[in-house]
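Progress against Task 2.4 (sequence-to-structure conversion) is shown through the following example record, which the project officer requested during the mid-term review.
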Amino acid sequence: MKILKSNKAFTLIEILITKNNSFFNLKKLKKKSCSGFTLLETLLVLSITLFLVTMFSFTMTKSVHIVRGELFVAEFEEQYKNTQLRASAFRKELEFSASGNKLIAGGQVIKIPEEVKVDNFKIKFDKYGNNSSLAKLRLHLPCETKTISYQLEMGSGKYKKTFQ
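Structure tokens generated for the chain above:
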């Protein structure tokens, strides 16, 4: 009687039918070698992975802070223009100011994010949308080590934007 052997595990029939008709013939069973990672290799791979993830998270966190700062700058400029337009459209005086961590634009209160530091200021737009101030507004972005200055022009409500 022939015994069919394969490279895979023996089937139940192959185990039962052996040359000696014994139930288990250990000489016929092939020993399979088990290979895997040792504890040291596993710890090494985990530590390298942890290092890479940590480096990525620091970079990602810094990028998020930079984006939040830039988004607020864009919102600041938009609110300035909208406050001026609303003052002109509704023919009433509106205020555009900042104090502490709040920006007040025509009655709307906007929270200033942690990523931006704003010098306190107060500008009033008359009923024609003009301002009567030559104030210099400053936004500090510590994450980028950048300061944005807005030099207001008297009467027109326009400004000149500079970076430092």
